[in-house]
Amino acid sequence: NPNIPGQKGIQIAGTINQPIKAAHDGEVVFAGAGNSGYGQLIIVRHNANTYTAYGYLSSINVKEGTKVKKGQAIAGMGNSFDGRTVLYFEIRTKGQTVNPMNYI
């Protein structure tokens, strides 16, 4: 959402605990809560240059090191800090964010 400072991805509205699916085959390189500002977060590495991030999760179904397949349920949708039920979704290629709308 370009209207929220610091956010490079998009927010996708849905329902609480709605299954969140991996965008492509890859390996989970982070799964948990950190200081990201996105609550519970999963980061998947798809190749040496491309990563996807999934934030505001109600649950996490994978661990770091887990190999995932495109379409595999990896988490449940949760709430953002303002109480909206959304998924934060971000794509990075070669360290730069790219517009996820080009891929969904």
3D structure, described in words:
The chain is mainly beta and 104 residues long. It has a single domain, classed as Glucose Permease (Domain IIA) (Distorted Sandwich). It has no helices and nine strands. It has strands at 10-13, 19-21, 26-33, 40-45, 50-60, 67-68, 73-79, 85-93, 96-98. Strands 1, 2, 3, 4, 5, 6, 7, 8 and 9 form a nine-stranded antiparallel beta sheet that branches. The protein is globular, with a radius of gyration of 12 Å. Residues 1-5 have low confidence and may be disordered. GO terms for molecular function: metalloendopeptidase activity.
By oligomeric state, this entry counts as single chain
**What is the 3D form?**
globular
Whole-number mean pLDDT? 90
Provide the CATH top-level class: Mainly Beta
Order of helices and strands: EEEEEEEEE
As a percent range, the share of helical residues equals: under 10%
Largest sheet: 9 strands, antiparallel
N-to-C CA distance: 15 Å
Which architecture name does CATH use? Distorted Sandwich
Number of strands: 9
CATH homologous superfamily (4th level) name: Glucose Permease (Domain IIA)
CATH fold annotation: Glucose Permease (Domain IIA)
Number of domains: 1
Please report which band the strand proportion falls in: under 5%, 5-15%, 15-25%, 25-35%, 35-45% or over 45%: over 45%
Residue stretches low in confidence (pLDDT < 50, at least 5 long) are 1-5
Return Rg in Å.
12 Å
Structural class of the helices, strands and pairings?
Answer: mainly beta
Tally the helices: 0
